[in-house]
Amino acid sequence: NAGVTQTPKFQVLKTGQSMTLQCAQDMNHNSMYWYRQDPGMGLRLIYYSASEGTTDKGEVPNGYNVSRLNKREFSLRLESAAPSQTSVYFCASNPGGRAFLTETQYFGPGTRLLVL
Amino acid sequence: AQKITQTQPGMFVQEKEAVTLDCTYDTSDQSYGLFWYKQPSSGEMIFLIYQGSYDEQNATEGRYSLNFQKARKSANLVISASQLGDSAMYFCAMRPPGDNFNKFYFGSGTKLNVKP
Question: Of B29 and A62, which is predicted with more confidence?
């Protein structure tokens, strides 16, 4: 059981370049999330997908797009990277639904992104 | 957005002593879930403990316990008998009720250093 996997682990971009961060989970979870972690600010929700076929904005969606490709995969795209998007990005999943309110999120190992 | 506050950016504790990490939250809802996570220097997010707002007893998991005071809107994590391996960042998170139940809100974290 791999849990939540993310690729790549580390990426350097130049300002204006685009890239897609990939996330996959093998726990048959309905809900998936993208967070960014910056020093002193904890984790901030970028986008989430409550279930296959739906996506919603979180606290800091500007500059990002997401795709819930299927139940397993949830990708995050930076169309035109900016230095302010330098961060560590975490993908997470959760069973989803009101029957699982006590269930934690399960996190991937993170992607370190540096935008020059 | 719900607000989670962790007022201690950094803390030191002597090995084998107990330590309390503070977490307060701001919500007008009566039903919600509170989670604590540990993030060691390796970067992964590890779930520690969960407390539901209607749970009558404080949650415990091994050396971790939650001092939950609903009226004060606080959910402090208590680590008993600290070990060197407890040195890490600790995050408090809340899952709100209602239509936002799929969202998790995180505090800014507390960095705990355990001294030998």
Answer: A62
